[in-house]
Amino acid sequence: MSVLVCITGRNNEKLMAQLREMLPDVELKLWPHCGDLDDVEFVLAWNAPLELWQQLPNLKVVQSFGAGVDGIPMDLLPESVEVARIVDPKLSDDMAEYILSHVLAHKLRHQNYLVEQAKQNWKPRRARKGIAAGVLGLGELGRVVAQRLSDNGFAVRGWSRSAKVLNNIECYSGEAQLASFASELDYLVCLLPLTEATHGILNRQLFQHVSNDCLLINVARGQHLNEKELIEAIDMEELGSAVLDVFAQEPLPKTHPFWEHPKVTVTPHIAAVTSLDTVVAQIVDNIQACISDMPIKNGIDVSKGY
Fold first, then answer.
1. 146 and 64 in one domain?
2. Residue 137 pLDDT exceeds 90
3. Are 177 and 159 contacting, i.e. CB atoms less than 8 angstroms apart?
4. Do 147 and 286 reside in the same domain of the chain?
């Protein structure tokens, strides 16, 4: 058995060094200079090329290098292949802090005062009154974020594909309840997994239900957002503003209109960043489980895609 690491778009020297140190008896291959792939049973993947998957006749486990698995083409994998993701408990706290900080900054009008400071204007105003916050996606991250907002005095709703029950959170589920969930929200947070059903869910049809001063925060995937319709909604005052940490193309192109839009805040995919030590520990555990024919940790439902 061998392990293939296929993580594109980043330098993998530290990752490979740690894996070799912790798995001295396991053959590790690095894409694309990896030779024959017939003996590969475990793949660590992120943005792997589509042509890879048909070259793995003995594949047993695919381990995502991130918390999401949307970059793994489930339809190209045999039914017997298991898929796992990274779960970092600290990510939940980091994500909750990121979102709460932007929600409070919006409520207290920090962005407005930065604009007025540049003009040397003294214009005190009361904080915004709205406290209705909605979280799209009630997985591990979404539940923690919803609870953190609730603990800080916000009236929180949550929406998910299937029904959930959470303390102090008004839960909605399914397509039929999406409009009711979004109705007159002051804050809308996206933490959904990216699936065919959620692709483009942040669109003008959804924005028409929220308050016209609503702050959108997208920390899930850039493909959840219809970028053109977001700008249209903000410019037509159907939506207040947006904080975006994820984008369809990363890094965000220098010519992209988000950079200069006065009501769009851009951050470089840093809302929650997993430490390499945490990632490697989970990867090693699953490689050892694969070798021993033991259950892997943090497996996902391949049929659902999350």
1. no
2. yes
3. yes
4. no
